[in-house]
Please model this.
Amino acid sequence: MKIQIKKIVGVLLACAGLMTSTSCVDFEEINKNPYLPDKDMEQKDGVLNGAYMPNLEKHIIPVPLKTDNTDLTNAYQISINLCGDSWVGYFSPRDNKWNEASNTTTFFFSEGWVNLMYEYAITNIFAPWIQLKNVNMSGENPNKEMYAIAQISKIMGLHRSTDKFGPIPYKQVGNGSFTVEYDSQESVYRLFFEELDEAVTILYDFYMKANSTVPMASDVVYEGNVAKWIRLANSLMLRLAIRVRYADEELARTYAEKAIKNPMGVMENIDDMAKMDRGANLQTKHPMYQIADPGQYNDSRMGATIQCYMKGYSDPRISKYFQDQGKKAIRAGLPVTQKVYDGASLPNISEDDPVYWMRASEIDFLRAEGALAGFDMGGGTPQQYYESGIRKSFVECGASVGSYLNSNTPPQAFADPVNVAYNYAAPSTITVKWNEADDAEKKLERIITQKYLALFPDGQEAWSEWRRTGYPRQIPPVNNFTNSDVKKSDGHKDGVRRIPYPRNEYEHNGENLQKAIQQYLGGIDKASVNVWWDKKEKK
Model:
């Protein structure tokens, strides 16, 4: 990672003023961005949406365009690769060099990194969304369809943000105040559901009037394809519904079934997958390529947990995910190691690979869990959705499923390629083959384990699922240098439950923040505190 840790990248955009500034500022100045149009350009048709929509989309999961500098790569590394990726064992640093190994991989939260995480996760999503709202919903002829797409994109990004931090400013953002109250995570999720429902209704009405696209040249994901945006919104609704099922089962059932029963349905075809790749005459580049490439950052290698499962299962996807057949992996949380792990397996990711928001295989695993919980997921059984999810995952990465569905071998133990002191027993005995005689908990472990393998390399989503369910069981980090009361994980529970708030919020929106901490987090702003939906008992 090549970044000045204590430098906040750029001037905070409009929503930052709404959330994190108490001083009097000139909004005309604060909204200026070298990548966005000036006043004269704004008068030209399509320029505003053409600037703001890709600016929103590339911040959902930080992904740079070919023409961008390293800011978004650094954002990805700080907020995903050295957090979720590490905590679920997808990746581990080749040399844990940052702050003498006292960093997020060892449960230590530095001021600079957390400030940047919050900016990337909150400010940089709200800012272009506010601009899109102003452009499309002002005046006598609002562009409701464009705004509906902006709403879906915003929720795709901000659910990841609230899943990181817990309570966030949401309902009042964009209403003209310099400081904004925090909303509980429960209320934010309820607003997500309402807004997704409204967006789907708007787009479906538009679609039924024989409109196949929302006219615009700025949508990198689907280039305005209405049917695909509707199915994505329904799929996102399903993801969020399943996420809250241990916190509010009826809320989960209501929206999970609503998503499935919508006339346009959910994502079933891999052609519908939501990804940042090539679109709107733009080309993205995968940040993990730069992070791992030995000629660039040279910072990331295969994690121990994913190796244990993929090697134990003889999973053909391993050669699609990692170079060298995933022969060597690294446990998270190591001390500074210099170059001794240089030979560990690199991710098999090229610069031009897409960054996925959501894939079709995930939808089947969501439906499998929903059916397991007794929700109406369209008539299929948990086993049918589970096996369909596996098949789709293999297709998505270009591997042959063969006899994989009948595999009865368990995950393997971890053998450190350098230091036997870091060896660890197999994290689980769970196998691939479905067994209808298993109890519901074992079936859940099987579903989430395969979901984990299909979600790769999205460590943030995998971390949220691990926190929510306790699965898949992990190889825990070696060291715990926490400054935020994190209990060393056994691979099933404890570990990092959320990210604490940054100092910037304490300094600039302190009254609202302190109120939220007292009301919604039990008065404790620590990484050991569960977010609202994290209610399941892990035995």
